[in-house]
Amino acid sequence: MAAAQRGVTIWFTGLSGSGKSTIASALEAKLRQRGCQLEVLDGDIVRTNLTKGLGFSKEDRDENIRRIGFVSHLLTRNGVVVLVSAISPYREAREQVRDRIGDFIEVFVDAPLAVCEDRDVKGLYKKARSGEIKGFTGIDDPYEAPLNPEIHCHTDRQTVDESVAQVIAKLETMGYLTAAAVA
Ligand code: ADP
Question: How much of the chain exceeds pLDDT 70, in percent?
Fold first, then answer.
């Protein structure tokens, strides 16, 4: 019988439009090919159910992250690989989740604000600049970059595939992906 898969939370943090969901989705496909049991918690989707009703004050953002962290912990300790993509702008909230889960890989999805703003995937930067949206991370709300992330992706100068390969290599060196899991 194959050894049980070790659970881990892979936590993508970064500005809106930095590429968190794009990389998480490409990684999901790769990990599924390798037979991993996984779950995806995408910040935008989570906010429409698990954390519906929460806003964007520091208190609400912290509560959003606390709940995502709670669910991630339950899954992780049961052997699931959890892919979380959430701006999660506050360092302390991320550290609390890390401490609770233990098996935790922080991926800093990094691109200059100007690049994210230029991509403006959801049109939110335009709204933030015009004042239609208040408290938008990077514009009029802070983003506290990770000081010591396990992985740092520079999406303005590396491809999605390169970022995915970076995460997979880290999972292998940390022992979360074993040869037995290879299809
Ligand atoms: P986030 O989840 O961080 O808000 P998204 O993944 O939704 O960001 O959007 C990032 C956008 O940037 C997508 O349209 C994606 O195609 C684009 N993009 C361009 N280059 C890259 C790259 N190297 N890595 C990730 N995304 C990239």
Answer: 96
